[in-house]
Each structure stands twice: as structure tokens, then as C-alpha cells.
Amino acid sequence: MTINKVISTKVHPDHGTPILAGEERRRSQRVIVRVPVTLETTMSGQVVKASAHTVAVNVHGAMLLCKHPFDIQTKVEIFNERTRERASAHVSRTPRESPEGYLIPLEFEKPFPTFWQISFPPTDWKPTDV
Questions:
Q1: For 36-124, where are the E strands, in sequence order?
Q2: Domain for residue 130, yes or no?
Q3: What does the alpha-carbon distance between residue 21 and residue 65 come to, in Å, rounded to a whole number?
Q4: pLDDT score at 129
Q5: Alpha helices for the chain (secondary structure H)
Q6: Is residue 121 part of a domain?
Q7: pTM for the whole thing?
Q8: Is 120 part of any domain?
Q9: Residues of the domain holding 74
Q10: Mean pLDDT: which of 6-15, 20-29, 113-122 is highest?
């Protein structure tokens, strides 16, 4: 039996360009960038630290790649190794295993637009074919 995944699209009201399902729910633009981070949490009374790096970031958090999985809703402190900033966050969805490690979706406890120290595109920006 073959199952085909259907991706529904809508036309963006302002530009006439297709929007993939779920894209209109995105709260802020994602930027693909690799930033080294350290995650810190407490498990069974012990402080646990794990090195990771970002795959994509936004003002609400990041998708991380880490050798160690973290359960959904795990509260962590994320430490940006480049800027030396800290933020409180939690694992927002179940991590997915990949050949390189675990893809961990992390959400800040509150939006933190300056955490990554990069300029994000405007929220209405859409990439175009060149």
C-alpha cells in the first residue's frame, strides 16, 4: 500500500504566491544558522549539561541538533556560546532522531528577539524564486 502525503497550499492574499500548509501559523521568520549552544537542566536532582548547535532560529526559539534527547516539555536553560547570553526555554515538541543526533524544537519562555544577535527578516517577507 502506498500513502502519498498531500501538501495543501493557499494563495497569499497580498502576493498571489502559494503558502504551504502551516506557514501562516509561523509567528516569526526562521533563519538558518549554526550557533553553538549549551543546554542545562536538572534531572533527578542532578544538573545535566549537553552541547548542541542550532539548525534554525527565530525570536521564539530554535531547532537544535544534539547528541542527547530531551523529553517534550523539559525546561532548560540555553546558553549561547557566541554571545554568552542565557535564556529559559522548554522542549516544545517530541524530538526527532536523525543520523546526526536529535532534532530538538526549543521554545523560549518569552520571545527574545536579541538572543541570537542577528537581524530577522520582516514577518511578511517570503523568499522568491530567482
A1: 36-43, 46-58, 61-66, 75-80, 86-91, 96-98, 101-108
A2: no
A3: 24
A4: 52
A5: none
A6: no
A7: 0.73
A8: no
A9: 28-108
A10: 113-122
pLDDT for the residue numbered 107:
97
List Cβ<8 Å contacts ≥24 apart for 66-71: 66/39, 66/95, 66/101, 66/102, 66/104, 67/101, 67/102, 68/101, 68/102, 69/95, 69/97, 69/102, 69/104, 70/39, 70/41, 70/95, 70/102, 70/104
Number of domains within the chain: 1
Q: Identify whether 128 is part of a domain.
A: no
| CA dist., res. 114 & res. 102, Å (int) | 25
Question: Does residue 100 carry a pLDDT above 90?
Answer: yes
Residues 104/68, Cβ–Cβ less than 8 Å:
no
Cell numbers for 124:
511578511
Q: If you average pLDDT over residues 91-116, what whole number do you get?
A: 96
CATH number, residue 44: 2.40.10.220
Cα distance between residue 29 and residue 74, in whole Å: 24
The reported pLDDT for the residue numbered 125 is 67
What sign for the dihedral angle of Cα 25, 95, 106, 56? negative
